[in-house]
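Re: beginner question about structure tokens

> Can someone show what the tokenized structure looks like for a real chain? I only ever see the sequence side.

Sure, here's an example I had lying around. Input first:
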Amino acid sequence: MKYLAIIFDLFGTLVDSYSVQGYNKILTDMTSALELPTEDSSKLWTKLWRDTTYERGTGIFKTTEESIRYICNKLKVFVSNENIRKCEQIRLETTRKGLTPKNGAVDILKRLSGLGYKMGLITNCSAEVPLMWKNTEFSQLFDVTIFSASVGMKKPDPQIYNLACEQLDVKPNECLYFGDGDSNELAGASQLGMQAVMIRDPNEIDPYRLVEVVWDGRKIENFIEIMDLI
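And the corresponding structure tokens:
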């Protein structure tokens, strides 16, 4: 085989990215649940949530509740335990729904595994994803899953790709990597020696991404095109 392992990104690749509008609504619902005292405090809470993406993504905040309480304490606003739980549940439920596979995702993973490829996942995520992973359709489809919040580092840190390779027992140049390109993940994989490919649905609407994605390498638009690359 040309490659020994195939590694996937999660958000925007195997599951849909949040839309900008959708992500903004989630934050509005979370601040509404907290019943913050003023509109300004709600805006500041939302800003701090965005500003602490790194802390959630690297597991500095180990739970959703910890992240929520940190921001409330930073703003010096009192929020009841009940409202914190309501806010937390909105985040958890949104994550659960967000882990629904894209059409064709499960089928291609099963097909690739059936052909003998080692299957890996590397995702930048907060604590909710590993918490809920075992209840998703993906849970039995990967040999190795690397969650940034669990390992304390995020793409494009080369160490996170190396960790996946070590656990899969392969070299980087024996890996094919697929992702939508957020967080400069494709450049990170490529610089380490992986064959990186952007997979991007041309019909996605207003996706929420942390960085503007620039990629001059190979691009595909649907899962079936993967079969032409292996």
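Each token stands for a local structural state, so reading them left to right follows the chain. Residues 20-98 form one domain.
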